[in-house]
């Protein structure tokens, strides 16, 4: 079966974080069809560890692929559209998994000296599978000496990768704020505390944090992606909920932004005579690419493959792969996949040629890293 077909099969069955049951079972079925002699498979929740024994191992090279989809109604019109209502692989994890399977298949047929560890990780979009997976017993036993991962990039052409050493992705924190006031008849606002009005004021005030509290030479983002509240057009809302995400380039700025959010929310409680509950949800550590390995990878791809290497800027995207890179030297890079619509868009349609580009380039690079004497 081709890895494009595998991507299409996976694209049909997107599942949210820690619910990747069908995805896990699909991957396990494929893995069982491969030669088993040098491969060991362990499941962890809805994730999977796959270890390939090297011929003359001195180290273990790790490769991580994330597995979950997003709560989006797909609008691509593709013949292999998501079969799961209101769920879509809109962040390319179907690509990431297919590429990992391609690499596993390659290295079972063409063994190298070093051990390889492939990590199929659940819940990248939230609440985060990387950190608990890192702390698992299996990871402790099979811990790699270096690790890499990729993320598809709609803005770069197929046949290119984009990468930089040092900081690549931001620190993140989710944000959930529940407001509770006093609802009532639409015609009697003076007898109520309207939580729709409080939520609107809150969202506007939150936008002042990046403009007024974060050093302009630093960067931060506060995005509110969802507001909900009220029941019907002629009842004043008793409850409202504001949901968003915070991104910062430094851990210190994240602390500052959270402190300001707490103050602003206390102000809303006083000003609108309501109760507010704040939940910062899950947070991800920044993605920081280790210098030596990243530079060596860029050099290798430039000189030994026909893939173009673009030196990119850092992005305010988040990735819990950052936790893995905090403990294990390695890097993440963007894989050019050329889609008119971006990540997290209902019409994201990356070019499938990127799958073979990645398998071919990474099998060469991993072969080079896994046979070369350091
Ligand atoms: C690559 C990517 O798009 N990652 C997500 C990670 C989200 C983490 C969490 N749910 C949050 O919203 O903070 C991203 O949105 O950058």
TrEMBL record:
Enzyme class: hydrolase
Record: residues binding Mn(2+): 91, 93, 125, 151, 344
Record-linked InterPro entries: AcetylDAP_deacetylase, Amidohydrolase, Bact_exopeptidase_dim_dom, Peptidase_M20, Peptidase_M20_dimer
Cofactor(s) the record lists: Mn(2+)
The organism's place on the tree of life at top rank: Bacteria
GO MF assignments: metal ion binding; N-acetyldiaminopimelate deacetylase activity
GO-annotated biological processes: diaminopimelate biosynthetic process; lysine biosynthetic process via diaminopimelate
All copies of domain Peptidase M20 dimerisation, residue ranges: 177-267
Cofactor binding remark: The Mn(2+) ion enhances activity.
A Pfam family of this chain: M20_dimer
Catalytic activity: N-acetyl-(2S,6S)-2,6-diaminopimelate + H2O = (2S,6S)-2,6-diaminopimelate + acetate
EC number(s) per entry: 3.5.1.47
Record PANTHER family: N-ACETYLDIAMINOPIMELATE DEACETYLASE, PEPTIDASE M20 FAMILY MEMBER
Role: Catalyzes the conversion of N-acetyl-diaminopimelate to diaminopimelate and acetate.
Family statement: Belongs to the peptidase M20A family. N-acetyldiaminopimelate deacetylase subfamily.
Name assigned to this protein: N-acetyldiaminopimelate deacetylase
Origin species: Robertmurraya siralis
Native organism taxonomy: Bacteria, Bacillati, Bacillota, Bacilli, Bacillales
